[in-house]
Amino acid sequence: MNRVQLNQLGGQTFVMQAQDIMTKDVVTISGSATVADAVKLMKDKGLRALVIDRRNQQDPYGVISEADIVYKVAAYGKDPKEIRVYQIMTKPCVVVNPELGVEYVARLLAQAGVRRAPVIKGDLLGVISISDILLKSDFVEKPKRLFIQEEIEAARQEARKLCNQNGPTSGACAVAWDVVEELQATAADQRLMAASL
After folding, report:
1. Spatial distance between the Cα atoms of 197 and 181, rounded to a whole number of angstroms
2. Into how many domains does the chain fold?
3. Which distant-in-sequence residues (6+ apart) come within 8 Å of 155 by Cβ?
4. 15 Cβ contact list (under 8 Å, min separation 6)
5. Which domain holds residue 166?
6. What is the pLDDT of residues 69-126, one digit of tens each?
7. What's the order of all strands across the beta sheet hosting 62-65?
8. Which of 85, 107, 136 is the last residue of a domain?
């Protein structure tokens, strides 16, 4: 049973992460392929972007999107059979850690002005897109603002309990209240972000 199924059964509360909603079947293409090859692959697979294969382990990932093809090839009347993927791809591209919370992924994509990003932890694990966030995440059912308030309250109760057990000047008590303060700072940051929208 995965994290999402466990949460749906009410077995555990957690922050939904990129790995929970990413698309795992990733289609890649070589940077040396032609744009015509990329267009054919995208049409055949019903995709709007492809991840570019790395040449070696130190090579950053790249992406070619429908926008790259339209804006850089079609708009200028260039022959897609003559243009190579590496000539128009975005590289390095924005990448996402699989453990990153979905709300942070959404913010990252928004700030970078991109619709999707490879999910990387050493190797390519998947791709996460704004469609994945919209269709698969739980932000409607569990808005982060409500969730974090519950988490703050639980952390307060735990801090009080630890301070009663270990004394108000103990290290455990101080660490517990640090957790509460971090959560409160995150909540304040979310309120500021929401107010600026």
Report:
1. 25
2. 2
3. 176, 179, 180, 183
4. 101, 102, 147
5. 144-196
6. 999 999 999 999 999 999 999 999 999 999 998 988 998 999 899 999 999 998 999 9
7. 28-29, 49-52, 62-65
8. 136
